[in-house]
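Private note to self, pasted from the team thread so I don't lose it. Backbone tokens:
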């Protein structure tokens, strides 16, 4: 999924939104230090996985952040929902679930708007935000 996230980051960059993409190759053990550093230094964290959301990487991140008494409301998880998914070509399934580069970028932008973070864009004509 990291390549889809990198492509989504390129789309976001074209809109003046700079993001950090981290390749969390393993769900266990978590890199607690890195995750907490990101939570403390970023306005929004989005976990993206091609596995079940329940009990997945994003859930583990939420548990860590909660245990450390950090802000959990800035974490958004993307992954496979807990219901039956029609079988088919992987790319089509991921697209239908919003887990392709466009879906990831769109969800990120929608989340920024919900959190009203977009108001921190500069007013110089070029929108730039590091998240």
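Design output:
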């Amino acid at each position: 999924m990291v390549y889809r996230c990198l492509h989504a980051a390129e789309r976001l960059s074209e809109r003046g939104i700079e993001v950090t993409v981290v390749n969390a190759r393993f769900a266990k053990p978590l890199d607690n230090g890195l995750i907490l550093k990101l939570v403390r230094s970023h306005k929004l964290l989005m976990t993206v996985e091609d596995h079940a959301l329940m009990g997945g990487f994003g859930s583990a991140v939420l548990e860590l952040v909660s245990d450390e008494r950090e802000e959990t409301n800035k974490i958004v998880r993307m992954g496979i929902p807990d219901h039956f998914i029609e079988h088919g070509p992987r790319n089509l399934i991921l697209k239908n679930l919003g887990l392709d580069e466009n879906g990831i970028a769109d969800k990120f932008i929608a989340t920024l708007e919900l959190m009203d973070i977009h108001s921190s864009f500069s007013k110089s004509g070029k929108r730039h935000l590091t998240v």
